[in-house]
Every structure is written in C-alpha cells, then in structure tokens.
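Sample intake sheet
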Amino acid sequence: MTPSRWPSGPKTLIITKNTCNRILKNWIQLVNKLLMLLIQYIKILDLDSLKRFLRCFCHELSKRCLSYQRQIDVPIVYHNIESDEGLRLHVFVKKKIICEIKARETINPAWPAQVLSHLKLTNKRLGYLINFNVENIRDGIKRLANLCCPVKL
C-alpha cells in the first residue's frame, strides 16, 4: 500500500480494515499479557513494599519478553521552556503503556488525574493505575485512556 499525494504535497496513509484489525489485535494481546501477569503474580507474592513490588513486576515483564523502562523522568515543556520538576513514570511497558503503581488502602482521587497527565505529556494512549494493596487485584487495577492522542502506526 503506497501513500497518496495531495496536490499541496503532504503524504497521507490509507488505512485498511485489515491494518486496523491487526493493530487492535496487537494492542489487545499486549494488554492481556500485562493483566494476566499482574493477576497471576499477585496471587503468588505477598509484598508489603512498593519497591519490592516494582522490582518483581519488572522481573516478570522481563521473563515474558516485554520490554520496559522503570522510573522515567518526564519533563514538562510549556512554550519551549522545560521545567526541571517533571513527572516520574513508575513503569513504561513496550513504550506504549504507562503503569503507575500504588500501595495504599484507599485510592486518592488525584491518582487517575496523575496517570492522565503522564499520558498527555508522553503523548501515549493507555495507562494503568495499579494499587496492589487490595484483597482482589482486579479491584486494584484501573484502566485510563488518553482519547486526545492520535493513533500511531
């Protein structure tokens, strides 16, 4: 499939239904791997420390060949001025999914907003707020989406 040219010059990519289905299938597989990893491994481990949970979570990602980055500083840029006090991502999976890890009994209402800010600043689409201090891990997983982010192929 080749891009077509507008008379003014910019290239556009024609996306077929098959391409969309393939992209969607890849996303679903990645998200399912991530969620299954969380559910399986929380049952095995009884962790009381956020640092330990992060270290074990990243180890499990590595075992499943899912690339990740841990503790990434995200600068805040406003009108070409970069702020030193940026945000920090806990875990960034396959340069696509942001995972913010918490270990609290109650969810702070600011945490979902924090994940949405991370998504907007990194121009990513999908994030998870994971609170592992719950009886059932499914109750501790909250999915957040940046609907303003363009789809990237």
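Comment: Confidence is low (pLDDT under 50) at residues 1-13. Residues 60 and 86 are 28 Å apart (CA to CA).
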